[in-house]
Specification:
This protein folds into two domains: 191 residues, no CATH class; 251 residues, no CATH class. With 481 residues, the chain is mainly alpha-helical. Helices cover 81% and strands 0% of the residues.
């Protein structure tokens, strides 16, 4: 059994991912201490601009993942899909370079307080290589080649860990930016060397069109969703000081590790899930989605409750950032809401309902902006409260997609069915108690109450999740894609 376990690509992938997340956690601590709030704010803004560009990919990686997962049995068509995706990525990269040159020549004031123009060359290299690394990771994902993906996801955190041991302050800032360049170039080299397809970047009009048509709605869906948190970061970087943005970057980075832990599992499951949804009957799809959702959501909320309780203990070792406790709790409570929509988005993609996802995402994004501007412009609250906008928009996002998903499965949707499926009482009651305690800013020890309530209400579900984990250990093929 142990040999089978060690030979499983999925187990190797998950082990490497959790090891990488541990390194990222250590990195976030070193970076926060050795950069300080000022340079941490500059580093956060550099990453913010980088994410704006890398996110604008017109949905090609997402449509490639969906189309590739559905057609993975047809190797010839799969190769054509991948090459078409790479050609579109090349065009996107050229457009991104043009946009960055326009910023340099005509809008140099953008990000001036964060010294953006000093780092424009490494920014261009990172953006272009990340475009290709993202598309290649999706190609490797569809083919089930996880070792290269594990390498690509581990190299940068390891590199940053090394440089953080030798540099401090501004020198560490420069070192992290340039090590980012080196790591991304090396990752691209590995992807090209072990490429599972024969490169042939021909203009295949039907496939290009199919990728763009499916990708357009997926792009609007994913971009609007990611721009929810990116726009919050942008608003805080603009309206508040560099140091305050540094504080935000500190607890946002730590909270983001929480969601990355869960994403490592969904990264493996999604191709299998899409294929299952695309080729299964409604009853089978409903059983599949219920099992996936219960295990995933219970795990997510358990991690959330534990982090709310123990984060204050962790902050005792970093007194400079003691003021970030309230913001950390708010952002974790916001992020965990998104996990309540797990499964329904995949179902809608597989059933060609990308347009529904796109519309919901745009509305959620607009809600996010509206609430954020009310908090900043009219209520004049501190930067931590801006995160409430994300909480509101995520709640709308999961409820709206839940309505569409339930209609697909059951033919109709009521509020009773919606709340029971998306935010069941055993999740909602501990969550609401934790949210109330956070807003009241009570003593830290009181956060043991929502954790105990969660365990009491979810004892059977937790035992079921442990059984699933046992199956994964005894049969590694259980999660292979």
């Amino acid at each position: 059994m142990i040999k089978k376990l060690l030979a499983s690509p999925s187990v190797i992938y998950l082990t490497s991912r959790y090891g990488t997340y541990f390194i990222q956690f250590i990195n976030s601590l070193f970076i926060a201490v050795y950069l300080g709030p000022l340079y941490l704010g500059i580093w956060g803004f550099f990453n913010l601009v980088m994410q704006y560009f890398t996110q604008v990919n017109f949905g090609v990686p997402y449509s490639l993942n969906v189309m590739g997962s559905i057609n993975k049995q047809d190797n010839q068509k799969l190769t054509l899909i991948c090459n078409s995706g790479l050609l579109l990525t090349l065009i996107t990269s050229i457009a991104a370079i043009g946009c960055l040159f326009i910023i340099v020549l005509y809008f140099p004031e953008i990000g001036s307080k964060y010294r953006l123009l000093e780092f424009i060359l490494p920014l261009i290299i990172i953006v272009v290589t990340q475009y290709f690394n993202t598309i290649f990771s999706n190609i490797y994902r569809v083919f089930g080649k996880l070792k290269e993906i594990s390498f690509s996801q581990s190299l940068l955190p390891l590199s940053i860990l090394i440089v953080s041991l030798f540099f401090r302050g501004e020198k560490l800032l420069y070192a992290m930016i340039w090590i980012n360049v080196i790591a991304n170039v090396l990752i691209l080299g590995v992807y090209l060397y072990n490429n599972p397809i024969k490169l042939n970047l021909q203009w295949n009009k039907p496939l290009i069109r199919a990728l763009l048509e499916k990708g357009l709605y997926l792009f609007i869906y994913t971009s609007s969703f990611y721009f929810i948190i990116i726009s919050i970061r942008t608003i805080i970087s603009h309206y508040y000081t560099v140091e305050e943005f540094g504080f935000f970057t500190f607890f946002y980075t730590l909270a983001n590790i929480f969601i990355l832990l869960l994403n490592s599992i969904t990264f493996l499951i999604t191709p299998k899930m899409l294929n299952k949804f695309a080729h299964s009957e409604v009853e089978e799809a409903e059983r599949f989605i219920q099992k996936l959702r219960k295990d995933y959501i219970v795990l997510a909320h358990l991690l959330m409750q534990l982090s709310l309780l123990f984060f204050p203990v962790f902050l005792q070792f970093f007194p400079t950032y003691n003021s970030t406790l309230f913001g950390f709790r708010l952002i974790v409570l916001s992020i965990v809401l998104y996990t309540n929509g797990f499964g329904y988005q995949g179902l809608l993609m597989a059933k060609h309902k990308e347009k529904n996802l796109a519309i919901v995402s745009v509305v959620a994004f607009l809600i996010n902006l509206s609430v954020a501007f009310i908090i900043v412009e009219f209520l004049n609250l501190s930067y931590e409260y801006v995160i409430i906008a994300t909480m509101v928009s995520y709640l709308f996002f999961v409820l709206a997609n839940g309505i569409s998903g339930i209609k697909l499965l059951k033919g109709t949707s009521t509020w009773k069915l919606l709340l029971k499926a998306v935010i069941p009482h055993y999740i909602m009651l501990p969550y609401l108690l934790a949210l109330i305690l956070t807003l009241l800013n009570v003593n830290n020890w009181l956060f043991i109450l929502p954790l105990l309530l969660f365990i009491i209400l979810n004892l059977e579900n937790l035992l079921g999740s442990f059984k699933t984990a046992k199956k994964m250990i005894n049969d590694p093929q259980y999660i292979n894609i």
